């Protein structure tokens, strides 16, 4: 998979997510970023260790914080999906 260069604005957003967002929101974003395909609420709960109730609340909050589409959208099955470039920025920040 070819990686896109991460624009400075998204790199800064990934850093902000890691430092200013709730830890659970960042961990959910990181799980979404690392996923090969969209994850259901149940799968996100398994991946992060948070309850499904927490996942639902934090995904809604993330969606609000990120302004929804295009940075965080929902697929046809209502599963959250990060924009690929933002996902790359989150992965890069987590690895640094």
Share of β-strand residues = 5-15%
H/E element string?
HHHHEEH
How is the main sheet built?
2 strands, antiparallel
- Low-confidence blocks of residues: none
Radius of gyration: 12 Å
Strand order of the largest sheet: 1-2
Separate helix tally: 5
The average pLDDT value, as a whole number, equals: 94
Q: Overall 3D geometry?
A: globular
Count of distinct strands: 2
Estimate the helix proportion, in percent: 55-70%
Structural class: mainly alpha
First CA to last CA: what distance? 20 Å
List keywords for this structure.
single chain, 96 residues, mainly alpha
Please provide a written account of the structure.
There is one protein chain. The protein is mainly alpha-helical and 96 residues long. It has five helices and two strands, in the order H-H-H-H-E-E-H. The protein has a two-stranded antiparallel ribbon with strand order 1-2. A hairpin with a 5-residue loop joins strand 1 and strand 2. 29% of the residues are buried.
């Amino acid at each position: 998979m070819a990686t896109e260069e991460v624009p400075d604005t998204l790199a800064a957003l990934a850093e902000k997510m890691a430092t200013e967002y709730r830890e659970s929101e960042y961990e959910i974003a990181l799980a979404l970023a690392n996923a090969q395909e969209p994850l259901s609420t149940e799968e996100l709960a398994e991946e992060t260790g948070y309850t499904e109730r927490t996942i639902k609340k934090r995904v809604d909050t993330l969606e609000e914080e990120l302004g929804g589409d295009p940075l965080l959208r929902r697929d046809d099955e209502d599963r959250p999906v990060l924009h690929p470039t933002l996902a790359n920025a989150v992965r890069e920040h987590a690895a640094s």
